[in-house]
Design a protein that fits this description.
Layout: E1 4-9, E2 14-21, E3 24-31, H1 36-51, E4 60-66, H2 70-87, E5 91-95, H3 96-108, E6 112-118, E7 124-131, E8 137-146, E9 161-165, H4 168-171, E10 182-184, H5 193-205, H6 222-227
Parallel strand pairs: 1-4, 4-5, 6-9, 9-10
Antiparallel strand pairs: 1-2, 2-3, 6-7, 7-8
Helix pairs in contact: 1-2, 3-5
Family: Belongs to the KAE1 / TsaD family. TsaB subfamily.
Keywords: Acyltransferase, Transferase
InterPro entries: ATPase_NBD, Gcp-like_dom, T6A_TsaB
Amino acid sequence: MSVKILAVDTATENCSVALLAGDKVYSRSEVAPRDHTKKILPMVDEVLKEADLALTDLDALAFGQGPGSFTGVRIGIGIAQGLGFGAELPMIGISTLKAMAQASYRVHGTEQVIAAIDARMSEVYLGQYQRLESGDWLAVVPECVIPPQEVNGLLDSSPLTWTTAGTGWDAYSEALSGLSLSLSKGDVLYPDAQDMVVLAKFELEQGNTVEAESASPVYLRDKVAWKKLPGRE
């Protein structure tokens, strides 16, 4: 049976959509930090038309659940929920950090990745991943938000060489320069929906889906985000 999954992501500066149909992936991606709401739905239309499919033909809808920009994560989930409600599709949340690990494998063939996104406020969103024989990823260090100067004490210090991914490495290059493990600089900066659909297939096979109304973000910094809302303390 040919699995068909649509993924959308606006959690970072990158705006992306991808459609997995059997063994083929149709994708659109653009770094457009201020135009997510304008670009995401036209991208959805484009990949569906290219694959000659409708939303109702799909098996599931995946979305970038964060961590990332508070506003960006909310935009992506809101759009995904709207699409999911309309087509009555089960939904699958995918970690942006894990998606960058998958992207690093796609681009570099690497199987050990440390992903770090600039979280502002002198912190990074970070996760350390090892690729499994199945093609899925083990979170050696689960995603977290942490000051860059504390990263060294958190990471698994195995003798393997780890490929870096994400904007956090350049944003805090000085603080992250003295890590006591072997690093290889990668050029994956942002998560992309074309990698999320690959990960979503694993989740769908395991039955890890939710209904549209239950789709939820991963902020890792809930209290700070809550305080920034108007009228909150």
